[in-house]
Amino acid sequence: MNLLKQSSILSLSQNDEQQRSMISAQSVQILNGNLAIDAYLATPEESGKFPAVIVIQEIFGVNEHIRDITQRIAKRGYVAIAPAIYQRQAPGFSVGYTPDDLAIGREYKNQTQADELLSDIQATIKYLYQLPQVKTSGVGIVGFCFGGHVVYLAASLEQIKATASFYGAQIVNWTPGGGEPTLARTKDIDGTIYCFFGTADPLIPNEQVDQIEAELVKQQISHKVFRYEGANHGFMCDRRDSYHPEAAEDAWNKMLDLFSSKL
Questions:
Q1: 145 is catalytic
Q2: Which of 65, 149, 223, 233 is catalytic?
Q3: Which of 45, 99, 154, 168 could form a disulfide with 149 if both were Cys (CB 3.0 to 4.6 A apart)?
Q4: Contact of 248 with 235, CB cutoff 8 Å
Q5: What is the pLDDT along the chain (263 residues), one digit of tens a residue?
Q6: Catalytic residue selected from 201, 223, 237, 244
Q7: Are 81 and 66 in contact (CB under 8 A)?
Q8: 211 phi and psi, to 5 degrees?
Q9: pTM
Q10: Where are the domains of the chain?
Q11: Is 115 considered catalytic here?
């Protein structure tokens, strides 16, 4: 069964000599039962098999920024895919960063369910493993904003060997759909997780970062927690006023180190 439906293909020139020369990117669909999940897939054009990385969106959808992140990861020699985690709530949702965009994105976030999110990510792994160019020895996952929370949840999935969680809010006091906060699932993390936070993030008090780190230590999870002095929420996104180039560059390189060492 062919699960891939192509809507567009592009080749991207490469200026960074450390990166791959060309990639291909396309819109695809992932089947999870009766649900077809829109996704953005980027792959190296050279032949061979590559490790895979799943990219989980902010509350703003699989927008230009998330597609750019997916392409950048592919340029480093990974098959990268960004599934639309709002597929059930708002198919095709992709917005910018206005107050209205923020409000609607939060509304959809509050309609998500942890079990559905995990099911969709598991379906994404299955889809990746059916691609002939993907290694099937485990995948990486990275998420930003709400996606940073979602990947902390997803780190409990068996096939996920490396997780990069960027400023995931409410990990210590909430989980999608209700129930015990996501922090309670820390004990189920099997691979390695890196968490990235800004000390000036109004959505994630530094005390909550302390709680996350303490629980990772308590449960003896392979991890690192990075705190960037003066960085705000969304510091990785160069489309937002909160973009912090120094923190973004350092965190990006640490994420790449994680994927390189574990995948």
A1: yes
A2: 233
A3: 168
A4: yes
A5: 333 333 333 333 334 434 555 999 999 999 999 999 999 999 999 999 999 999 999 999 999 999 999 999 999 999 999 999 999 999 999 999 999 999 999 999 999 999 999 999 999 999 999 999 999 999 999 999 999 999 999 999 999 999 999 999 999 999 999 999 999 999 999 999 999 999 999 999 999 999 999 999 999 999 999 999 999 999 999 999 999 999 999 999 999 999 999 99
A6: 201
A7: no
A8: -65, -40
A9: 0.93
A10: 46-262
A11: no
* DSSP sequence for 60-109: TBS-HHHHHHHHHHHHTT-EEEEE-TTTTT-TT-B--SSHHHHHHHHHHH
- Tokens representing 200? 């000036």
Instruction: Indicate the CATH number of 46-262 among 3.10.180.10, 3.40.50.1820, 1.20.210.10, 3.40.640.10.
Output: 3.40.50.1820
Q: Is 244 a catalytic residue?
A: no
Q: What length does the chain have? A: 263
CB < 8 Å & 24+ apart, contacts of 216-220: 216/186, 216/189, 218/186, 219/186, 219/187, 219/189
Dihedral sign, Cα of residue 157, residue 160, residue 161, residue 162: negative
Tokens for 207, please give them.
């005390």
